[in-house]
Model the fold of this input.
Amino acid sequence: MTSWYEASARQRIDALADPDSFEEFIGPEEREISPHLALFDLPEQFDDGIVVGRARLSGKPILVAAQEGRFMGGAFGEVHGAKLTGLLRAARQLRCPVAILFDTGGVRLQEANAGEMAIAEIMREIVLARAEDIPVIGLIGGRAGCFGGGGLIAGCCSTLVISEHGRLSVTGPEVIETNRGADEFDSKDRALVWRVTGGKHRYLIGGADLFVEDDGAAFRQAAIEALSRRAALDILVLADEQKRLERRLSRFGAMSEARDIWAALGVSRPEAVPGLATEAFLAEGRHKRENAHDAR
Amino acid sequence: MTLDEILASLFPDGHPIDIGPAILTGVAPLEQFGPVHVLGIHGRNFLGIDDACALARQAVDILASGDRQPILLLVDSASQRMTRRDELLGLNEYLAHLAKTLILAGIRGHRVVALLYGGSAAGAFIATALAADTLAALPGAHPEVMDLPSMARVTKLPIAVLEEKAKATPIFAPGLDNLARTGAVLETWSPDIPLDAQLREVLTRPAAAGNRDALGAQRQGRPKAAAIAARIVELARRGA
Done:
């Protein structure tokens, strides 16, 4: 068993793809570094914190992008973002599915405007790909989580796989605390952070589709399943998603604590949810959760 | 220009736009193009799950109507709303859903033109203005990813140092000129020319959202993005 959370971007690709099938595009040997970090006297990384390329998964071709959360929190800068934009454009031309291995705090502030634009461009490319029935799946379980614009990109994916360690949100708890105070969100309360942003909660409210153990082989199996699910994005899917999100607001909109939502879903002993092992959690939650049924 | 002045200049014969506490919706006539769907967020409001959902409801209904009429998005917002409740209920899905609906509307034959006339920031900017196929701005508009004081806190650099660095590059600092140079904002409209004429002029040209990175390269705001993306496409095609 290899922990997805602890693994590097390259180790995650190795765990995901068929053995020796990965071929990188613009690898570190090309030293295609950020042109902006020097202004801030910050060290560059030769791959700018993202590894992209082609591989095979169960024998079938796939395009893969893996963010490296240990370099600048996996944040989107100009080069980092453009590598993913290019990969998604290639996906349409080749009619090849894409897996995005998220590990990001969002926009890289030292090149914030380029990062913001990259996120908008990536979202557009995902919609264009899915409008042509090409799957773009997201895997979330890395150290940096999936925050900021990363959370918005994840919200555009056809299917999302998440582990208990995976955190998925827009504004990070620290930023909310800085802006609104610890009464609004105490970012040092780790249990609270996990209840609000963590994989179990996202799975239970329908914010993610497949819940897996923190393990490379489990992510690989889930990715294979995710690629077999409905990917096309059309008016009917968006109308269904609209209903789904309105329903969530009307069911849970008055609640401000995750345990209340889990109780409303009918989960027995909500207070025990954070401690449940994967199998026990799925046995309890699988049929009680709000299942998105591919309306995303 | 105020929202009232903008609407009066866009729709000189009057309009039935419903202006709510934070968002606006309605349909108004534009000479030569017929009815235009109007959506927007005003008053520098934060965009949270409730308003994002309400705006998306309008956008989904427009898409489902199949009328292919232009959509005009008027934007004067703050950032995404930063609360625990918004995150608990999945703000990322609500913002992404709104963006997806606007982007798909563009693909399915609606023109989607955003006019940024005030502020907008971070996730709210991505889910509204940047999801349009064309983004125009009025002078004085103030788009930003993060304000400089917050950026100073995160980067641990004094604001004065950031301001100094911002003179050398459009890459990180807030502001209309910087966002225009990175390719986000296509053009700035003149407040001295009737806005309906400027809107009609944009609608006669094809959508340009797919070329924002090329525009950023041409304006020397994003030196590498377009070339890197093109090389990835080339490498992916070569071995396939």
About this structure: The domain at 9-168+208-233 of chain A is CATH 3.90.226.10 (2-enoyl-CoA Hydratase; Chain A, domain 1). The radius of gyration of chain A is 18 Å.
